[in-house]
Amino acid sequence: MSAQEERDALALPLALYDHALCLLRESPEGAPLRRGYRLPRQQSAPGEDPLSRSEVVDAVREAFSPIPDDPATLHRRFLRLGVQDRHRHLIHSTVAGLSLQTGQVDAARTLGRQLTRTGTTASTVTAGIALLVRLGEPEDVPYLSVLGLFREFTRPVVHALDLLDRRSAAVVWLAVHARCDELQPLLHALWTRNRQAVRAELVAFPASPRFVSSTVARRIAEASQLSDLLDHHSSDTELLARAGRLLVRMGCSRDDPTDLLAYRDATGVYEGVVARAGLLPPTVDNAAMLLSLALDLSSGTGVLLDWPPGRRAELLESLGRLLAEPRWEEWADATGSEADQRLRAGWVRRTVRWPFKRPATTGGLRIEVVVGDPADREPVETRVLIDDRPVVPAVFGRGPAHSPEYLLDDGRLRAEAEPHEVQLAEAHCTEGCCGALYVTIRRDADQVVWENWRRPQTVPGSREPAPELPAHRFDASAYDAEITRAETDHFWSWPARTTARLIKEGLIEKPELLNRWDAERGWIGSDLDAPDTTVVTFWYAPGGRASGKPERADSPLRFRWAIPDDGTPPEEQAATALHRLAEEDPKSYARVCGGSRERAEELGFPWPDNT
Predict the structure, then answer these.
(1) b/e per residue 198-227 (b: at least 16 CB within 10 A)
(2) pTM score, two decimals?
(3) Which of 107, 135, 299, 488 is deepest in the core (most CB within 10 A)?
(4) Longest dimension (CA), the chain
């Protein structure tokens, strides 16, 4: 080769796959950097008017008619038609939807392989990935895995790999999306396929919600081939506890409970954990993990897994027998701060028998108020089960069911002759972002009807259109009895939350306790971020918002009164708080927590420093 030919060869753009390999070689120990890589900058064709979405779709279809013989041909067609790298999302969706005749499949697969291995532009490589989503085979996995380290390609590559090799898909996803330092040793072991190191690092990293979301938990389980690890290390109690913990994180309602349903080995890992749970030492962490699994199998997303008939009930019975053994009362000896021990111990005592109680009747409507492990700071949910299936994760799956204060204390689930719509759940982001779940409830003679469901238009965890939900009819007397039971059964509540409920009931009965101070009741409650504190909030505007004639009603101030749990019965604490509201202006001992700084200063109240 002449010197000129060498310079010409060096001037040719490097295939994106080769570029990714170079980046990998430059990374420490040959493992990808946290968050993956960015595509190299490539200049768009100058002087061309941008295409509309429909024009891009038409151009991509034209570029594949007929199917190009090689990447260079597709590249020239894209240039001629104005298809650029910035169109890669439309390129992917359009190529994925192309109609291929039987005789075109082999040619399309060959082209996909050529594009992913030798393509030099994001547009052509994207087209190749889209073809392999449909037509890829195991031999394509190594090439796709390397390309997926480019953040711009991660999503379509993971989609392709999920169909070909779940382990590789999970490793690529974690390499790009698992960003915390604590997970990096595990990711290195997964990428280098060091099975011994995978086991060691799997039990070493902290599995709290701060580090492990539901999706991270699922991908870790898939990448580590957790089910196989449990089989190979059948007496490893650390691994067993970590497997249970990952299942708990996958099913958490605050994140995306559909991750548990997407985990193909979920039932097998449940079986492995429950079968060997007797090997676990009786610590607070293990008690909380096993109880969390039981709650999920009783009324959570775990109910929706593909269980053989009767098997889920058998697993629940096994967990119930284990947690009823005297030695499991020793979990209070676990390490941790005294406050954390007391909080989790109280939760276990209140909750440990509940998931193992059989409902009086099967089918129909069942309401379960569930408080998750305090260490996870999960929201308190009012789980609604119809025909023994939890409604919210089954038909919504974008956030937890609403709290009992919202659905039960305010009587929203009661059935009246006049139909009324109830929001059962809202997306963990907001309704405006990802929607909410609504149902209309009405009484019809001796029946109660749930109908006219409203929810997002796609199935949870996919882009498939959501089918219309059917109406459900319940025997009215049984329905009323279940709602009354749920409204009056407060076994799940901890002292500060019970105090909050009693204060709220007192202010509903006697609104004048606040009205006399020109105040109006706001949120009253206690949550697991500060479980030993009851919080009373109220709104204040001179002249009284409740009177209907306040001064500057559009600029009220919000106050917060924090009441520490003093250990006395909640009834006494609530009575004391209501008496103080009757005798003393709450603005003198509560603190401003909302409104505007200008209005607070105008009325002579200090503005909080952290707002």
Answers:
(1) bbebbbebebebebbbbbbbbbbbbbbbbb
(2) 0.89
(3) 299
(4) 98
